[in-house]
Amino acid sequence: MPAYRRIISTLQSLFRKEELDRDLDEELSSYLDLLAEEKVRAGMSPEQARRAARLELGGVEQVKEKVRERRVGAMTDTLFQDVRYAVRTLSKNAGFSAVAILILAIGIGGTTALFSTINTALLSGLPYQQPDRLVVGLKTMNGEMSGPVSRVDYFDYREYSRSFEELAALTTFTMQFTVTGGRQPALVDAGFVTWNLFRTLGVNPILGRHFLPEEEDPGGGGQILISYGFWQGHFGGDPGVVGSTLNLDGFPLPIVGVMPRGFRFMFDADVWALVDKNGPFDSERDSHSHWVVGRLKSGVTMEQAQADVDAISSALAEQYPESNAGKALLLTELQSYMVRDVRLSLLLLMGTTVLVLLIACGNVAGLLLARGERRLSEMAMRSALGASRRRLLRQLLTESLILTIAAGLLGITVAYLLQGVILQLLPVGELGMERPVIDSTALVFTLLVSVATGLVVGVVPALRGTATDPAQQLRSASRASEDVKSSRLRSGLIVLQVALSVALLIGSGLLIRSFAHLSMLDLGFDPENLLTGQLQIQVSQYPTPEERNQFFTSLLEEIEALPGVVSATVINRLPILSRWQDWSIWPAEQPPPSLQESFSAMARWVPPGYFETMGIPFVSGRDIAATDVPGSPNVIVLSEGVVRALFQGSNPIGRMVNVGDWQTFEVVGVVRDARINTLRRAPDAAFYMSFAQMGPSRAQIAVRTAGDPNTLVGPIDDLLRRKDPNVLFAKASTMASVLDDQVAGFRIVILSLVLFSAVALALTAIGLYGVLAYHVSQRQNEIGVRIAMGASNGELLGMILRRGLLLAGFGLLLGVAAAYPGTLLVRQLLFETQPLDAASYVGAVGFLGLVAALACFLPAWRATQVNPVEVLRRE
Amino acid sequence: MTGGKADLLRGTLDMLILKTLSLQPVHGLGISRRIEQITGGVFQVQPGSLFPALQRLEQEGWIKGTWGESENNRRAKFYRLTSAGRRRLGEEKRNWAQVTLAITRVMEAT
How far is it, in rounded angstroms, from Cα A831 to Cα A810? Predict the structure, then answer.
């Protein structure tokens, strides 16, 4: 048939459907008339003739149905019909539909949100040119991963390696500088990079140029590149900024370029300056403070590049055994390196939502099965009226697909909401990746999930619902008895749901316990009512350590005089807020230890009263005193961890220690260890020198307050402006909120997991309830007879409860067995909690058992309320 | 084959209908009866297969149905062959001749 005719016919059968149907009706009735007439001519009476004609024609409806199926576009037509019918049926059971759609929307929405996040974070590329060619180099010590790379080693790798188009490095931290010359001093974060870092990443400045190789050499000129944000904020987006200078800590540095909006790498920075290739700072091979980033030459594999740098590592180890023995450079793909922290959380959440979706599928499939049984007579009727089984199957599947597609649409809304939450919880945006959005890929994913869900929940109920012989069904329609196969299927579904739920509950329990451990942690200092902030004074204004000490001492006194302040102190790095800076320390009577044998602890310098303000208890000896100033003997306070490592616990007071390549210090006191770096690490060993003897121009301030610390930000600001308007006071926040930020990501993961588990639990309880309630309603006759025969309420309750609890029990066993291997996967997220934590297991099983018992009790109680007289009379 | 009546071979119904209509326009019952008559009652065309076949042939553009009056002044839908249908009938005849010839040869081979 020519294409145009086909199209016309299709359109006709779609839009002229009623006309065609009317035509067919008329034709069939004329056929009947003609047939009857023929029979009258053959000698029958008109009535007999009409009857005989009808018999000969067979079912009018069946003939019509056959003709309709023949029509071109019959598929689309019956699809429309199915959809119309399905929508009508579903809206007649609005409650059922709403519940099913809502249940599925949660599952589908959750998976979509996580899919789009994972798609962006784990699967799509980083916003750099050909990101799959980018690698990160990390130092290993005797095969163990141990982090950043020595700057000196890096320059050797850069010179001798042959596998990289470019090999660049940057510092692992930013340094803060004060920008002067504007209306107010401002603090900027500067990162130090090699000249080729931006070329390696393939990111060009939007204004000006990259660094040049010769600018890395001594006397290169101190050129800097600035970030888009800083350009906008500090220069108002002035296009003439390239060629001007920026005053950093008093040094005028020429700006050569502006990086594009949103560019960040490893950390946020306002300014990028060049690594000082030959500078004295950090110039040792055993000082490790740089990340190495390379772009593989095309055609070079990871393995080849690794072999290349391994050869250089062994050459270095041979040449510099003291610093480089056992040291190597491990190459890792940049992408997998950057997502290492969020990958586990994301995969955990994804796994969880898939489980919830499965549980939701189980519920809806259960609902459809039960509904299918109630609709057996409807199906039988339709089948008697000429519908083929295929047609009925298609009809039922259409219904479940409409349910799931509606759920998918609602799920998109759920996904939008959820994704906002996920992004707040997980530091995906900080990776410098694009913000995940629900894009077309995610929408296609939603559609696929919806359709797959529709088929999963619909196929079995549809097969079951159309499997019976219509004649038998119609005859017995009034005496519906529970179909054995269907009920077994539903029981199986419930067992699975219970198993999945209990596994989820156990997982949540483990994480909640970890979180409780984390938040009830003894930090070794008191984080309540503590205001923190950064302080910086201009070296040009206070050129000598004495002048700087004078400033800080008087400032602390003035702050302590403010109402609401208990005490105030400063330190180079506050706990949790600023990490690391670990220096090696050893007893002065011993020679300096080799790199492998050296013991490092956190190096801090504090004024008198620091330990009291922070709430770090003294073990023995004295505090740093006001008399420990430049010129007097150097003193040091050790934490217990240092004493254990250096003096095996014997009394260290009065002993002498050496620190780094510094001078010798006399030990005057011992304090407890405190958690200085992160919550998840054990308390760190630290040593505290005298703030006055170090004489820094920059410090972090901690103010112990009587009430809410936030109310003191204003007064301290005012005080500083009066005292010296060039002093910078920045980033004021309470210690409590600093700690909060630390666990925020973890809390989000836990909250989502708990939320999902609660949904799973609720769905399972509903499912269990549904199965039992249905079971009771189907067995009413039997129950009625039992009551009539004298069964007590207790026996009836027991009978129904036993059935429900048996199902739940099977599920619990299965779930507990499945949970253990599952929890091993999340081991990394656990904190001071064993994967086999008894409390989590017992709690989860107990809780689910209780909920299951409640869900079973209602139907069981209803069984005792069956009125035997009524039931028997109905019979 | 049940009740001594031959089932219509697959695809032959179309041909028989086209052939029946090649002489003059006929309505549905007429087509049934004509085929029955000519085949001496071997082929009985039930409405359940007749109407779907008519529907398909009309969609293919080989026949066209128009409402008219029967010999006894009853309204009935009469089908006539279109020129495309006439060409189609020619093709079917040739195919049929080939098929029957081939089958006959097989059956008579010794």
Answer: 31
Class of residue A540 by CB neighbours under 10 A (exposed 0-12, middle 13-18, buried 19+): exposed
**pLDDT digit string, tens, across residues B6-40:** 445 556 788 888 888 888 888 888 888 888 888 88
pLDDT greater than 80 at residue A755: no
The pair of three-digit structure tokens given for residue A415, joined into one six-digit string: 């996904």
Query: What element of type H or E holds A659?
Result: strand A656-659
pLDDT, residue A770, reads 73
Q: How far is A404 from chain B (nearest CA, A)?
A: 35
Which amino acid, A448?
A: L
Question: Model ipTM?
Answer: 0.77
- Across the interface, whether the CB atoms of B51 and A72 are under 8 A apart is answered no
Q: Which long-range contacts (CB under 8 A, 24 or more apart) does A181-189 make?
A: A181/A247, A182/A234, A184/A725, A185/A536, A185/A538, A185/A726, A185/A727, A185/A728, A186/A234, A186/A728, A187/A534, A187/A536, A187/A728, A187/A730, A188/A230, A188/A248, A188/A270, A188/A271, A189/A267, A189/A268, A189/A269, A189/A270, A189/A271
Tokens of B5: 């009546």
Q: What is the dihedral of CA A231, A236, A241, A244, to 10 degrees?
A: -100
Report the residue of A27, A69, A388 to disrupt the B interface, i.e. the one with the largest count of B CBs within 10 Å: A27
Q: Is A28 part of the contact surface with chain B (CB cutoff 8 Å)?
A: yes
Return the structure tokens found at B9. Answer: 């071979």
- The string of DSSP codes covering A173-223 is S-EEEEEESSSS-EEEEEEEE-TTHHHHHT---SEE----GGGGSTT----
**0.80 exceeded by pTM:** no
Cβ within 8 Å, pair A37-B51? no
DSSP H or E segment with residue A658: strand A656-659
A612, amino acid identity: E
pLDDT in tens, A249-304: 778 888 899 988 777 787 778 888 888 776 655 667 777 778 888 998 888 888 88
**CB neighbours of residue A573 within 10 Å:** 19
**Alpha-carbon distances of B21 from A222, A373, B71, B80, B90, rounded to whole Å:** 99, 50, 17, 6, 13
Q: Considering just the CA atoms, what is the radius of gyration of chain B in Å?
A: 15
Residues of B whose CB is below 8 A from A23: 77
Among the listed residues A94, A69, A66, A93, the one whose alpha carbon sits nearest the alpha carbon of residue A79: A69
Does A34 contact B27 at a Cβ distance shorter than 8 Å? yes
Q: How far apart are CA A726 and CA A292, in angstroms?
A: 37
- CB burial of A501-533 (b: ≥16 within 10 Å; e: otherwise) equals bbbbbbbbbbbbbbbeebeebebbbebebbbbb
Tokens at A655, concatenated:
């002993």
For residue A867, give the H/E element and its range.
Answer: none
Residue A581 in tokens:
């800076």
CA distance A415 to A378: 37
Q: Which residue on chain B is closest to A9 by alpha carbon?
A: B59
